[in-house]
Amino acid sequence: xxxxxxxxVVHGACGHDCPDTCAWIAETRDGTAVxxxxxxxxPFTRGVLCAKVNHYLSRVYHPDRLQxxxxxxxxxxxxxxxxxxxxxxxxxxxxxxLSDMRDYGAESILxxxxxxNQGLIQHSSLDQRLFSLLGVSxxxxxxxxxxxxxxxxxxxxxxxxxxxxxxxxxxYIVLWGTNTLVTNLHLWPVIQEARNRGARIVVVDPIRTxxxxxxxxxxxxxxxxxxVLALAMMHVIIREGxxxxxxxxxxxxxxxxxxxxVEQYSPASVSGLTGLAAGDIERFALEYADAKPSLLRPLIGxxxxxxxxxxxxxxxxxxxLTGAWRYRGGGLxxxxxxxxxxxxxxxxxxxxxxxxRPTRSLNMRDLGRDLCxxxxxxxxxxxxxxxxxxxxxxxxxxxxxxxxQRDDLFTVVHDLFLTDTAMxxxxxxxxxxxxxxxxxxxxWGHHYVSLNQPAIEPSGESVANTELFRRLARVxxxxxxxxxxxxxxxxxxxxxxxxxxxxxITLDSLRAHGxxxxxxxxxxxxxxxxxxxxxxxKAELWSARLEEQGxxxxxxxxxxxxxxxxxxxxxxxKTLHYLNSGYSHQxxxxxxxxxxxxxxxxxxxxxxxxxxxxxxxxxxxxxxxxAICCRSERVQPGVAWMPFGGLSDAAGVRRHVNSxxxxxxxxxxGGSGFYDTxxxxxxxxx
Length: 686
Ligand code: SF4
Description:
single chain, Dimethylsulfoxide Reductase, domain 2, 3 domains, six-stranded mixed beta sheet, 29% helix
């Protein structure tokens, strides 16, 4: 394998924050990766990587990649650093952390990480063990996913749903607030196959996305009113006698209360609020109810509203009412992530019992506010950032950057590139790419588990997260053996599970095959016979648990935002060539995405005296950015769209869409109402 000139083939998997978890094959020669391509044998990802990852080798070998530790030698944010050794970097961190723990308490240290790496042990493993022992502040990592999960749990007791591959059996697929063709590319062939077999594809989205344009029917709902649309659908379904009475009586609670609630939501009464014609709502409800099987596919978009959890809670009532769960390919399909994690030995991996005492939890959404707080006790003195770039991805970007600028804050960033956040760091540490470390990659978009095997040696002095935490543990004087376990030992622990769906999925079998499907019947229907894991054991159309928590026990509209600054509701979304802030450091991705734009309907362009292509100021209560005005037919009047990610604004400053977004808590689940941002757009005079 290591002989000169011999081609080595290594199986791996993409670890990006994406539901598809593509299986890939790396070819190396003389220790250099020479080719990377999708594994053609993988049944879901079918040998295709996306526009970003097709160029992954240029990311791995990019000249700007961090190769060794750096220490800041200029003002914070100026990007002035000097090379130091790993030993010096670790000693700097240990000295600061030990003095912070002594003088301010361990909770003055905040580790901040997110989904920048979705591999199991590089996302969470030795880090969590070390943090439990130290007693540092814990981070609530719930800016994405938790809201939707909580909402679904309120109705169906878990986030479990239809296996995405089973969508081929659906006859009516509703893509609700998800741009499949851009963010969940490999699901589209499954949907196309269903369409070839006669399925109708409907998209509910305020934006005419690429997916909406490719669908059979696009319903451009007003942002945030999806709950009301779903309530009106239930109104029609009940009024027109389309309820599956058998299924509901056997497997649901609270039908009568729900029927009374939705009586007021006739299509005519919600038409103005939702922006949809009453006739379209009627037709949508009946088509959905009559098609067997029908399938709802909400993914990420909905949860970024303040009523995000209620959106999922309410949508989840629809397949219960129609009995769609009975049919193969019927029901609701969202993330498979929690489902996969529930089968792994996560307690063995994370060892939460190591915590000596409860420590405070800080919501990642509030980082800017917490860093700038004068009342938080103890204040955050040290910040360790890995798997994330909070200076770009969090709301209230101006406040986050203000906090990072604090002279008395000691910030360490572990990453592949000098990210926006790293520019403010005191110490920067080089991280490995997915080609350079071992990991298991569960998927949140299908039922395959993949092993990512390292194909090449780490670039320069870069280390994987697991190795970083071994080094930190050592320099902090820890000697507990479980802080120094190898990556293989960590994975073996995680795979020590007697879950029937994990039978035969071991490190050895994954090494032999690269990826394996969860062990369940091909025709697997999670709630065909009820069995909802709620307190009542039934789908809870009315929930005693919610009522006890002081929440609305029934599905409802939730808190819908109705306007603010300039009345334009700002929606942001992913683009083809960036993955959040990832790839923004690389040509040709940067060139393709260009500079920050704002899309507006022609009416809004005219109303404000703007012109297509002109530079404009976009202003919200939180901040402002400059952007290029783009007249667009994708958006409806009163709605604006901007891309998220690491784009520079039109003035060449690295300010992004999150300069405009607030850190508004969602109804429950601890997320952030990014999409409840209202802006004004003004011409910039010379
Ligand atoms: S980002 Fe998503 S679509 Fe692209 S290669 Fe990775 S898993 Fe596949």
